[in-house]
Write a structure and sequence with these properties.
There is one protein chain. The chain is an alpha/beta fold and about 450 residues long. It folds into 3 domains: about 80 residues, Rossmann fold (3-Layer(aba) Sandwich); about 160 residues, ANL, N-terminal domain (Rossmann fold); about 100 residues, ANL, C-terminal domain (GMP Synthetase, Chain A, domain 3, 2-Layer Sandwich), CATH 3.30.300. The chain contains 11 helices and 24 strands. The chain has a 6-stranded mixed sheet, with helices on both faces. A hairpin with a 4-residue loop joins strand 22 and strand 23. Helix 3 crosses helix 4 and helix 6 crosses helix 7. The longest helix is centred in the first third of the chain and has 15 residues. It is globular. The C terminus is likely disordered.
Amino acid sequence: MKEKYKILPQQRVGIFLNDTVDWPVAFLSCIMIGANPLLLYRNLLETDLNYLCDLADCRFIICKDNESFAGRTAIPESEINTDADNTVEPYVWNNDEMCWWTLSSGSTGKHKIIVNSHGSFERLYNVANKRVDIKENDVVLSVAKMSFAWGLAQLMWTLSNKSTICLIKSAPAPAIIFNMIHENKVTTLCIGPYVLDAMCKRKDRKLPSNLKIMSSGEYLTEQLRKKIKEIFGLKVFDGYGTSEIWSAISIQQDDVSFDNMGSVIGGIEYKIINERGKECLHGEPGELHVSHPAQALMYWKDQEASNENYIGRWVKTGDIVIEKEGKLIFKGRKDDVFKIKGIFVSPLDIEKTILEHRYVENCVVALEENSSVENLVAYVKFTEKHNDNIAQLRKFLKTKITTERIPKHIIEVFELPRTVNNKIKRKYFLESSRLKNKNKV
């Protein structure tokens, strides 16, 4: 890259590869010559890919051999492992310099580009290793793609502990995951709830009794945790974080209840801020602010979002939490929670209750707004088709939650739209235009 393509320090290089051995080689090569690797999801739409590369001033893209991009230099994957004639001296970076660039998930809006420094990248290893507990003889299977912050964190924790990581080149189908676990004697499975739930449908398959499952990327429900215990006899440890502060605030321990995110890792500071901008009293819900040794620098070319979310040494996570007995309880995203008749309502609490119904597979609760009334709407995917599903669910909810928390509208859907990294796309349900013609949802 340095000699043939004349890539200079602090130039962006997009990594648009499947998860193979070539991916970490490409990523670390960029770091070695001082370039800024821009992590691109393989399933991005062409319009989104062009938008993000233009935004990042990205002129180079490491990609498959047969791909090309108008106005950019494509670096074919086949060149990655070509022997070089000369040894390349590592670029000597400053801790404050820009290092790798990643994307926000886009679950509540458009993707933003997140810029990380060399200093935060170096400190990543030390932040959560005692909770992640990856040892030299471990074999880690990362279902999370390397272009996600959670996947990259697993890669670097694994390599820095001299252990082995297995990557999935294609889409993470349950059959592939089961086979790789057994063929490679995997000891740690890093996975998201969506794929984990899909594995539960393969009840004919078994998992090793010593397998440690670490979930992250999306809220892990009590129902899914219980399902894993019942089907496979295994516990699930839940990691919490955001792309801005890595995925390492907390990892659930055995003594943590289902509702809790867990305790905050040593070396990370936090505070919970209410709507009035003051620190919350004990048990009061508020937005989680974090001061993290490995936090990002800013959003690229989005000064307004950077000023809003990066306050001195604090990063606003956008997550609403409650602290109880030293543990944090996740109540939902700030964009999602709301008040009805002056009462604080968390959609996750209502969704959790809906998921207790035996014929519900998944759901999303959103707020329908008009000029005078605020009503809850539940979009529900049922496991079985019955004519009275909605009526039975409404009857069930009346025995479980108060009247103001029961959704006025319950709409059956066949699928819940997801982002490119498999998070439920809540923004879809928050747009009022989606509520105007419910029969087409």
